[in-house]
# Entry
Amino acid sequence: MVTRFENGIVVTLGKNSRVLWNATVITDGELVAAVGDSAEMKRRFPDAEPVDCSGKIVLPGFICTHHHFYSTMARGMGIPGEPAANFVQILERLWWKVDRALAEEDILLSAQLPLIDCIRNGTTTIIDHHASPSMRDGSLDLIEKAVRQAGVRASLCYEVSDRNVIGGGIAENERFIKKVGKGDGQIAAMMGLHASFTISDETAGKCVGIAKDAGVGCHIHVAEDAADREDSLTRYKVPTVNRLDKLGMTGEKSIFVHCVHIDESEMDVLAATKTAVVHNPESNMNNAVGVTPLLKLLHKGALVGLGTDGMGSDMLVQMRCAYLLHRLANHDPRVAFMEAPQLLLQNNAEIAERQFGLRLGEIAEGRPADLAILDYYPPTPLSEANFLGHLIFGLVDATVDTTVCRGKVLMQGKKVVSMDEERLAARSRELAPKMWKRLQEL
Ligand SMILES: [Zn+2]
# Structure
C-alpha cells in the first residue's frame, strides 16, 4: 500500500538532517519511497492514500534501547514494610518479588499495555529486558505475540541470574535466539543477563558461549549501583566492566545498561570494544543510584544510547531529563544541549541497527517507514539550525497524533488502531490485585 503523509513539517534526521516545510513522506509497503515538496509528491504519487499532516511535524519513530515491559503491574502497588533505603533493598523488596509473582496472562498484559504507551508516544522500536522466574519458559513468546499485535519492532531477551536457580533463564534465551535466528526486521533476540553481582563466572560463561555461537550480543545491567562495583572488586579483584570484558561479554552487539559506577579505565574498555552503553536518567534519579559519567563516556568515544528502564515509554521526556540532569550534575549550563538529543536521535539508531540490521531513525528513500507525527505549530522560525531548541523546549510537550511502523498506521488521530486499550487495561485492573496478593505472600 502506498500512502502520502502530506502537508507537514518533515524533519529527516540522519547524517544530513533537513527540515522541510509543507512536505510529504511517501511510504510504499514497509519502506519510505520518497520525501519532498507536497505538490510535487502529489503529482508523482496521485493514487497514494492521503493522510493530512498539516499542523504537524513528522519525525522518524523514536527508539528506546532499554525497557522492562514486565514492570507494568507494579504501578500503584503498596510495598509492605519499611521503605527501601538503598538500591539492593529496592530489588529485594520490589522487583525480585514483582517478577516472581507474574503469571502467564500477566506477562502478556504487562507487555501489551506498555506497547500501547509506546505507540501513544511514537516509540516504534524497543529493546526489552524481561524477567518472570515463575513462568520463565515460553515467556519471550508471549512478549513476541504482544509486539506483533502492536505492530512495532522489539529486541527481546530474558535476564539470566543465579538468584532463584543457578543459570535461570539460559535455556529460554537460547531457545528464543534459535527461533528468531537472523530476525525478520520486526523481532530480534539478545542474550539477557541481570547483572554482574547476580551471576557466577560459570553462568556468565554459558551465556557468552551461546551468544557468540549465535552472533548476538549480551544485554546486562552494569554498575547501576555502587554495590555492583563493590561486589566485583571484592570477589573478582577487578571493576565490573573489566570482569565482564574478561568473560567475553563486551563487543559491538552488546548493551551495558547504566554504567553509573565506573572509572576511566572501564570507560576506555567500553570505547575500545565498541560496547554500547544505555543511559536511563529518570530511573537513576528514581533509585538515587548516582549519575552516569555521560560527558566523559562520549568524550572517550563510547556509544551511549537512551532508555527508560521501564519508567515509561516517552523518549522525548527521557531526552529532556538527560539534558537537565547533566547540566545540574556538571554545574554547567553550557553542556548537554547537543549530547542529550544525540543519545536519542543518533546513538539509539546506531544501537538498533546493530540489533535489527536496519538503519532506523531517518526519513529517506529506501529507509524503514517508521514515523512519529506530532501536533506542532512552531511559535518561532524552525530550521535545521535551531531544531534542537524546538526539540528540547517545544516538541517534548507536543502530543503524538499518528504513529507509523513498518509502513502501517498504528495510531491515527490519537486513536490506537492496532490494540484495544480500554479492554486490555480493564483486564489488567482485574489481574493486578491478584498478582499483588501473590507478591505479599512471597
Ligand atoms: Zn533495567
